[in-house]
């Protein structure tokens, strides 16, 4: 794979603490599963170069660590030059799903440019502990007009598919496209319009 002049793509992982942002980042970038790490304030990121459509894409995956009262300001600091957002919840934690409304509101008031968004339910390997149904996730994705995945960082389920979708959604700077790459049971794709800046933004969130 050629590494000269790669296309930079910054993607931010957004959601409540313990939804699995760090595990997702490590699984995709390092090919490993790590379930926990100490919680700190700030942001860290990892990079991975992939080749797609005869172009080298250098994907930056940013993990924002949550701290009550501080996390919103931390996220706002790192939104500039962000091309994509993975909005995450834990399928075994109802509160993390219910809190998505606050994250979406925050994105609406903070983002100044169109951003591609994917809705992601994590920990799909814990089916016996599920509190949020797949249909609820699909319904929210339909309401938002975005692509939806359920993933498992532990079982490496739909990880590559999720980030492939993000690259495809953001690769064309003139607009967005739909993605149909994951299993039908865990992914629904919604086409986003290639119209004005305002239209693209309103369709994302």
TrEMBL record:
The keyword Electron transport does not apply. It comes from the Eukaryota. Pfam families: Ras (PF00071). Keywords: Nucleotide-binding. One of its GO terms (molecular function) is GTPase activity. InterPro entries: P-loop_NTPase, Small_GTP-bd, Small_GTPase. PANTHER family: PTHR47978. NCBIfam families: small_GTP (TIGR00231). This is Uncharacterized protein. It comes from Euplotes crassus.
């Amino acid at each position: 794979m050629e590494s000269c002049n790669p296309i930079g793509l910054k993607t931010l992982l957004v959601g409540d603490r313990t939804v699995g942002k760090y595990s997702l980042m490590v699984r995709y970038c390092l090919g490993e599963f790590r379930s926990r790490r100490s919680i700190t304030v700030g942001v860290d990121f990892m990079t991975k170069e992939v080749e797609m459509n005869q172009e080298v894409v250098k994907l930056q995956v940013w993990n924002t660590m949550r701290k009550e009262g501080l996390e919103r300001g931390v996220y706002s600091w790192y939104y500039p030059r962000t091309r994509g957002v993975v909005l995450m919840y834990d399928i075994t934690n109802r509160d993390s799903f219910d809190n998505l409304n606050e994250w979406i509101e925050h994105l609406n008031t903070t983002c100044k440019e169109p951003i591609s968004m994917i809705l992601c339910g994590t920990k799909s390997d814990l089916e016996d502990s599920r509190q949020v149904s797949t249909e609820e996730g699909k319904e929210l994705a339909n309401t938002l007009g975005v692509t939806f995945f359920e993933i498992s960082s532990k079982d490496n389920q739909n990880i590559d598919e999720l980030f492939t979708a993000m690259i495809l959604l953001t690769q064309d700077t003139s607009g967005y496209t739909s993605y149909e790459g994951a299993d039908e049971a865990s992914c629904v794709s919604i086409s986003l319009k290639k119209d004005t800046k305002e239209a693209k933004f309103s369709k994302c969130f």
